[in-house]
User: Which sequence fits this backbone?
């Protein structure tokens, strides 16, 4: 199944070929997709791109920092650090490895299958 964004871009491209205006395209997409329709500004942006001759409906490659730091190498770094001291908290791990807390949390839960275990000591 196509991603809804890609599907709508294909439809925008089709409507451009039918010589529909950007405003008509917004109206038709909202009629077809309702709440899931692309925003007016996105429709105008893609309408312009297709009007100028663009054929590809996929996003352009972006330069810069990768979307995530959750790489196999970083998973191994977290695993190694935890082997040295299992009492380290999420914040300390993130500080020591220069990673975001969210990335460390994702690695701990989804890659290392760890969960928070809280042991409380009660005096009787």
Assistant:
């Amino acid at each position: 199944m196509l991603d809804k964004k890609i599907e709508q871009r294909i439809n925008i491209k089709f409507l451009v070929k039918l010589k529909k205006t950007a405003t008509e395209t917004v109206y038709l997409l909202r009629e077809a997709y309702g709440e899931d329709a692309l925003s007016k500004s996105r429709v105008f942006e893609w309408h312009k791109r297709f009007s100028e001759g663009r054929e590809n409906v996929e996003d352009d490659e972006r330069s810069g920092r990768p979307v995530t730091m959750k790489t196999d190498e970083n998973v191994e770094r977290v695993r190694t650090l935890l082997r040295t001291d299992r009492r380290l908290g999420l914040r300390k791990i993130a500080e020591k490895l220069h990673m975001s807390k969210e990335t460390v949390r994702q690695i701990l839960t989804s890659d290392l299958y760890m969960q928070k275990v809280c042991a409380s000591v009660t005096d009787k």
